[in-house]
């Protein structure tokens, strides 16, 4: 059972990594003059929808809420991959991958942010306790 959960997590992490890399490569390609106007137009729609907090169907609606995210964004990305010239897309996919390797996760910065949040929550908790004691 444990290995099944680990394999599902690895698959999910890989898909997430692939989508991030692909969307970043598409964003980079969007700015290239070799990309046709209709692909740029679709890139604005797909990437804008992917990163927008507003959905066509709200996520709180069971099944349908996530269906638009699971269908529209991947289909738009697939269509963009076909519309953008291969050499342009390959160039930006390589660039997206190299930039991801060049900028590894900064665990120190993450630790500082976590510590600041913990301190802020402790301060807020102390203020609340003092407020209730009055």
Rg result: 21 Å
Using DSSP, what is the number of strands?
0
Biggest sheet overview: none
Work out the count of structural domains. 2
Helix content: over 70%
Q: SSE order in H/E notation?
A: HHHHH
Instruction: Report low-confidence residues grouped into runs of 5 or more.
Output: none
The multimeric state of the shown protein is single chain
Domain DUF1232: 39-75
Membrane topology: Multi-pass membrane protein
Subcellular location: Endomembrane system
Keywords: Membrane, Transmembrane, Transmembrane helix
Short description:
The chain is mainly α and 134 residues long.
Mind sketching the topology for me?
Layout: H1 2-30, H2 37-51, H3 64-83, H4 86-102, H5 107-133
Helix pairs in contact: 1-2, 1-4, 2-3
Describe this structure in words.
With 134 residues, the chain is mainly α. It has two domains: 2-103, no CATH class; 109-134. Helices cover 81% and strands 0% of the residues. The chain has five helices and no strands. It has helices at residues 2-30, 37-51, 64-83, 86-102, 107-133. The longest helix has 29 residues, at 2-30. It starts with a helix and ends with a helix.
